[in-house]
Design goal:
The complex is a heterodimer of chains A (about 290) and B (about 400). Chain A has about 290 residues and is an alpha/beta fold. Helix content of chain A is about 35%, strand content about 20%. The chains are: A alpha/beta (about 290), B alpha/beta (about 400).
């Protein structure tokens, strides 16, 4: 929680300094003018209301306040494929699985939502949901995150199905999609968009899924049998196939990035083994990870 | 290479291990399984590889492991490589002298026992080995394995003088002595039967014969008939000749009687020395100067009688003038002028020659040769080397090979 507190603290510091156009993109829209206050030395001169300065010969800045009750929706993939993490030589379950990083991202987003006064709703592909209205409601968040690994019986769907079936209200200002997105297409995400709503896509992949030729074949194996975590299907591949996979994945990621950028959707690719939630969320907030 | 032999042939059953490994390699070397989130992308790029095809394909690691297992299995069986070698030539040296006629035990003579040991040695050698039996002279008689020397050959051995064993101390030689008095070899082998003490005459002088009882050190003098004889023949040894005078003086000092007459090679005479020379009628009228040991003399060349088996004593310009062997001295000159220089040197020079070739009277054997001796066996240095090279164990090289293969397999 120390790292999370530091991240939220940075966000709050940004919010406190900002009256007007914020640096944090997640806090960008939906603010209303409430009045003026004297300009303080060191503040951005561009925030000065020059009309008042001409009238009173003193610098004033415009003061805004967030619109009340903005709603954020986080759609989280908790399917079996998210259990995959970086492969290691021993074959043990790695500590840095995709779901682990996804949970940390949810935690960070919850903290940010609470800090900015937004209501956060988290929906998982396993049928779990969380609605957090107050920033200090961490107990429910903790229980929710701890239960991510146990899906509800009889309720398992892909992230694409979840996105297709979700009902969004006009007050849903931000939608964040977190998952490995293997079974989704960019248009599935774009259908969640609406005027005044910001879409964020965070694709979390394991190290072995990003660089299989180096990770899976690091022990000198010439052939490996890959097992799909959800279906249990198996496929025998060699190092050449791994290199072809990497080229294909690179094309796919570039396609995702290009399409989403064209529709002003925020895109971030995260490595479950090496990325931290600060690194992933930082660029959206205009801060660097610690 | 004649082939492989195995100390533990049952160990070859372990060769089934690499075969079994090969049969089950598909399951043993099954590729590792890794978990991935989705196979969708993989299916688009991966060419199909059937598990059966993958299992049927031999990897270098599998091959190396199989070879290592095979090497270990062979090492367990204790393989020995029989190395082909060239046929060896062995020289069997028989002990000479009258001691060979002594009874060694159970009725056999000591020479018979030595021959038996030589035959036994030959029988243990690989077929194809050759055996040269050395008897009275330096030239031997080559016989096949199992073939004993003939009786006349052995008779000459008994009549021959003392053996110079050091001249035959070589790795390819085997000594077959007839007494325990000789030296021990350094390179040659030694085969000697157990010898019983043999009582009997040990010396004969003008007073009689000295007899050893086989147990005590004391000798008993037994009066006997005729004294030992020194037979002289040839014009060069006529009365009044310088060499005749030396012979007479030497015989007198040993209570021997000088007898003049024609030389009879096969005569079983009780002689200790025969000095012969060419006849006067065949003498060539050519004078040559010769000498040794401080004396010089002019001699008149005659016919050479017989020098086979003799060693040269006197020569002039490369021409042999006198040669000596066991019990015999032969000269090729018919007349010798009085030697110049010290007369004593002339007498001593010839007397030492007579002493060297003196053959004891029949039946007389020195006490040292009559004593009992334990059996002895010393391997020839050559025999040991041959034994080592015939079979070479391969377990250690195979174990080393297995370790090397495992190391390489682990690195791959």
């Amino acid at each position: 929680m120390g790292r999370l507190g530091l991240l939220v603290g940075r966000l709050l510091a940004l919010s406190a300094r900002r009256e007007g156009v914020g640096l944090a993109r997640l806090a960008g829209h939906g603010e209303e003018f409430v009045g003026h206050r004297p300009w303080r030395a060191g503040e951005d001169a561009r925030q000065i209301d020059w009309n008042l300065f001409a009238r009173f010969d003193q610098p004033f800045v415009r003061v805004y306040e967030r619109e009340a009750a903005e709603s954020w929706l986080v759609m989280l993939d908790t399917s079996a494929s998210m259990d995959v993490g970086a492969a290691d030589a021993t074959g043990d379950e790695p500590a840095g699985s995709k779901l682990q990083l996804a949970a940390e991202l949810v935690m960070g987003l919850a903290a940010l939502a609470g800090a900015t006064g937004a209501r956060l709703t988290v929906l998982t592909s396993a049928g779990k949901s969380l609605v957090q209205r107050r920033a200090r409601d961490t107990r429910a968040l903790r229980r929710f995150l701890e239960g991510l690994g146990t899906p509800d019986p009889g309720f398992e769907c892909g992230l694409g199905e979840l996105a297709a079936g979700v009902r969004l209200t006009p007050r849903t200002g931000r939608v964040v999609v977190i998952g490995d997105l293997f079974e989704m297409q960019p248009r599935d995400v774009l259908e969640l968009g609406a005027p005044g709503r910001e879409l964020v896509v965070i694709r979390v992949l394991a190290e072995a899924e990003l660089q299989p030729s180096a990770v899976l074949f690091e022990a000198g194996a010439t052939r490996l049998e890959l097992e799909e975590s959800e279906s249990g299907a198996r496929l025998l591949v060699d190092r050449e196939a791994a290199r072809a996979y990497e080229r294909e994945l690179e094309v796919e990621l570039e396609t995702w990035q290009a399409i989403l950028a064209r529709h002003r959707v925020l895109w971030r690719l995260a490595n479950a083994s090496s990325s931290s939630f600060e690194e992933v969320l930082g660029p959206f907030l205009g801060v660097r990870g610690s | 290479m004649d082939g492989l032999s195995f100390a533990q042939p049952l160990g070859l059953v372990a060769l089934l291990l690499p075969l079994a490994y090969l049969l089950f390699a598909r399951h043993l070397v099954r590729p590792e399984t890794r978990l991935v989130g989705s196979l969708a992308l993989w299916r688009r790029v991966a060419r199909p590889i059937s598990a059966a095809a993958d299992g049927g394909r031999l990897t270098w690691r599998t091959v190396l492991l199989c070879l290592a297992l095979a090497a270990v299995a062979l090492a367990v069986a204790g393989p020995r490589l029989r190395v082909e070698r060239a046929d060896e030539a062995w020289t069997l040296i028989l002990g000479t002298g009258p001691g060979g006629a002594l009874v060694a035990g159970e009725g056999a003579t000591r020479l018979d026992a030595a021959v038996e040991l030589g035959l036994a040695f030959a029988a243990e050698r690989p077929s194809g080995d050759r055996f040269l039996w050395i008897g009275s002279g330096p030239e031997g008689l080559e016989l096949a394995s199992g073939e004993a020397p003939p009786a006349d050959f052995l008779a000459e051995v008994r009549m021959a003088g003392p053996r110079d064993w050091a001249a035959w101390d070589r790795p390819d030689c085997v000594w077959l002595p007839v007494s325990g008095a000789g030296p021990l070899p350094r390179s040659a082998g030694l085969e000697r039967a157990r010898l019983a003490a043999a009582a009997g005459p040990v010396a004969r002088t003008g007073r009689g014969t000295w007899v050893w009882d086989g147990a005590r050190e004391a000798l008993q003098l037994v009066a006997s008939g005729a004294p030992p004889l020194v037979r002289v023949a040839g014009a060069a040894l006529g009365v009044g000749q310088p060499l005749r005078r030396v012979v007479e003086a030497w015989a007198l000092g040993r209570s021997a009687e000088v007898v003049a007459g024609e030389f009879e090679r096969q005569a079983a005479a009780r002689v200790v020395l025969e000095v012969v020379g060419p006849s006067g009628s065949d003498a060539q009228a050519r004078l040559v100067a010769t000498g040794r040991d401080g004396w010089l003399a002019t001699v008149e060349l005659g016919d050479w009688v017989d020098s086979t088996g003799l060693r040269s004593f006197l020569e002039a310009g490369g021409v042999g003038l006198a040669a000596a062997g066991s019990g015999r001295v032969e000269v090729s000159f018919s007349h010798m002028q009085n030697p110049r220089g010290d007369p004593a040197a002339f007498a001593v020079s010839w007397a030492e020659l007579f002493d060297a070739v003196e053959r004891p009277p029949e039946g007389v054997v020195a006490v040292a040769e009559r004593r009992a001796a334990e059996s002895a066996h010393i391997d020839a240095a050559g025999a040991g080397a041959v034994k080592d090279s015939r079979e070479r164990p391969l377990a250690a090289p195979l174990a080393l090979l297995a370790a090397l293969l495992l190391f390489v397999a682990r690195r791959r």
